[in-house]
User: Fold this.
Amino acid sequence: MKNGNKHFVKASLLQASTVIELEDILDFCRYAEQHASKEFFSLSNNSHFAILNNGMAIQIPSNGYQCPEDYKKSVQSGFPSATDYYKASGTGITKFEEYELIQKCGINDKHLFDEIQKQGFLEGFEKYNEYLKQEESIKTDVTPSNPYKLYLHSRENGFKNFKHFFEALQGGFTNAKEHTVAQEKGFENLADYKEGIENGFLEAKVYHYAKGLGVKTFQQLLQKDNLELAYPELTHDQNVCLFLLSKLEQGKKASVNKLNSLLNESLEEYKDTETKKLFSWFTTALGSKKKLAPFLQHNENVRKFGTYDADGEFFEVNAIKDRSVVIDGSNVAHNSVKSSEKPSIGNLILMVKYLKKVGFSDILIIADASLRHKLSDLNRLEELSKIAKYEIAPAATSADKFIISYVKSKHCLLISNDTFKEHKVVDTWTAMNIDYYRLTFMITDGEVFMPDLK
Amino acid sequence: MRLIIYQLGSSINANDGYAYSIQLSYILGFTTVSIGHSEYVYNFYDNAVTIVDISERLKTLRFLLKNRNLELVDEAESGFKYFKKLKNKSSQQIVASKQLENRINELFLFYIEDFYDQMSEKFGYKIMKEYINPDDFYIYELTKTDTSDFEQMELLPEDILQRLLPDQDKHSLFFLNTSLEFDYFHFVDSENNEAEQVHNFYGSNLLNFPNLSLMTSSEVALIREDLKIGSLKFREKINEWATICYDNPNSNLGLEYFRENLLPLQESADDLARQSPTLNSFSGYTNRKGRLSILFGEAPIDTIWKIYLDTETISQEIFDKLLEIKKEQAPKFDGRWPVAVIKAIEDKEVLEEENEDINSETAIKSVRKSISLD
Assistant:
């Protein structure tokens, strides 16, 4: 048997002038090297290793090792016993530290161990435990007890390595997919992300903006924005009041009591369903009937929709012709036009003349920028400009969006046969309110017909 | 259980419902199989960029541009041919020829990216592409029936519609996306007695979802995980039902199981989607009108074929061939097969709006609402 460049011989020691037993395998090996011993002897059923030098036997107990080289390697690598050393080398592990970890992890696979090490879980495990101690608020369903369990836990939750896992954990995330989605939306921690999506925010930016305003949900933020669009200088309840007035039946009278009751009904929309209180961001000035009457009497915006009679304590809604009106330019220009034909300015002129005839005076046309390129009678644009204001939707904004936004801010009437179906899908305000303002029409044989103005 | 989503780019129902079908099937944990134009678009970009020959690139450009900007391709093609014919090019001609090639390459890359982006947006490919794998979501390719360069030899439409698909051990259920009116199919609610007539298509709406148009690829994976437990129970029931349907053709055993075990789910159709906070967060962005529902039921086999015919997914020739097979192999295709159908939720208000004949020459009605003061 050969061991390295040494011969390894099984033997029995019968006689030697001197027998010295060394205690340390490293001393034994050093002695053998210094004296260039070529043979190692395995004595008494491998109970000792020995070398002979000038009739002197130098021996050391084998302690279960098969040869002195193994014994030396084991000691150098920190193994406490031959059993551990051979168990470890059987799985390809050469260091006791690693072996000890594997034992603790309950695994027996060098490749797996290497993978755990490569992914940073050996080093990371300590960091992880320290972090958990510091951050007591972090809740984990399971606390992995060793690097292997941490590795498994991390993998089960979709993480690529310890760095990925730990980065997410610092934000409170324990699931990689959730962490990715949150990151894409711009959320830095789990608490904000959970609160954000629970309240309908798809972006952290919007969530933080709303939070800064004291607005809890995305729907509330839309409500707030829509309210403030019309009369930003007024309180929210005054805006709700004006919004309500803009939707009342034309030409009718309503007592201040009735209006107060309608206003209270409208305010329900702005109350927390649990506390039954108005949202914290919602500003008020019209706390009672006493405050409503002066508002109706003195606020100049109220006059767009009607007149308040202080003596009679009633509000008379204006006739429809007294309202401002916006014309959906493209929709009217295309009316009664077959698909092969071009839209016409003539339709818009007919519409404006008709509206003026029935008494409207504040008329605005809003059209797509592209309309002028499609018109059959562009030369009549000047004629139209003389009888009504003509505005083009800003570039890169669809005229529909611009028109809806205009109606939201002015609470004016809208002339269009477009049902705004696509906008209703994505915008609750449009779905709930646009038909309070929209007047349909038909142009045929040079005549305009509008059922609401009969 | 596999859900088969079969649709061509030329099908008349080629709309975002196709992408939603794939996404919903996947997030519900069904094995999702896409057949039709997915094979084309999913692989389009990867295949297209490997085209290096300038003539082939010009040919592809012509195909992509259809009728727009064709003068651009004509001009590039005539220039390319001109330089190709020249035997001994001057150094200036070599430079000009290289510049032209570079320009063609730029155009080619621009338009394939543009096309891919458009298709991805419309059919959701970018969202789902990374989830293609042999277990959860894969594509069966159609037999090459046209001159398109991107289609591969695989399945015949008539085989697909006889459910002669690979991996026969797995049940396959067609996931229909149709804009056709339900009355058209003799559709009856599963509770209705007429559902017991095997020539009727019965079904009920079992699941509702918010509009998915805002969903990203990462969200698809997260939602699937969120719904893992809830969808498992649902899938098990669907699987049991489908097994009964397939094992007992021309009978009402499937319907009986459906009424007993699946119909009660109708009352909680919104509940599964609510188990995912991410799905829930979309609800605030769309009104009721943007929501989707999935209806499950059994349809007569030839009705299923007819739907594919009427949506122009198969030709009349294939349909006739299938009817012939039905006759020859009677009674194999006489009964009903379980199906799923994706539908946009149409509430009363939407239906009324759609029925509004607003541009009619003869009638126009007021739609304006007001708060009554009476």
Remarks:
- The interface with chain A takes residues 211, 214, 216, 218-219, 221-222, 225, 277-278, 280-287, 289-290, 350, 353, 356, 358-359, 361, 364-373 of chain B (CB under 8 Å).
- Residues 91-123 of chain B form the longest helix (33 residues).
- Chain B has one domain: 2-43+126-354.
